[in-house]
Task: structure prediction
Amino acid sequence: MVVDLFHGDRVTSFTKAYQAGIRGIIHKATTGATGRDDAYSGRRAPALTAGLLWGAYHWGTSANVTKQIDNFLSQAKPDDRTLVALDFEPSGGYTMSLDQAREFLTKIEERLGRKAVLYSGNLIKEKLRNKNDAFFGSHRLWLAQYGPKPSPQKSWQSCWLWQYTDGESGPDPKTVDGLPGDAKGRLDCNSFEGSAAQLNSQWAS
Result:
């Protein structure tokens, strides 16, 4: 029901994507303290016009957290209907630390008055191990796991959104009308266990 995009993904018709059953788009807005996705701003209005929910995610790095938040909010320009998410995944020698992820989520909530979604896969599991972390568990989990079913870290009873495929690994479906994916035809697809009305009511909360 949800697709996440970045500038390398092709878009031919958000209307066709909506007609195919997609109800939300989460688009990369920024990386670190200075990186910006140049496709973000131009795709926002067409997606909303097609009836899609809109979200923005920030790829966290080891850069100064306050500068990362400033970069993200300046580019994403979230209103009260925009989902905001932190992408916490490996970035080589620039990988965001667990403490930085905690700081980012804390300060985003202070700035916006609501919690961001946490996107992660193996990294959050490796960092938290068997710990039940109440802080991270209080944030909705957008889990990246390309297998037959989602298996969240023990801080969560379930994931809010499940990225079940990157367009290669994981179960079907892997394609969406109107969204051809990257140059190799790969597209990140996400499953939401609930109705479209429930997704809409929970989207930016």
About this structure: The first strand starts at residue 2 and ends at 5.
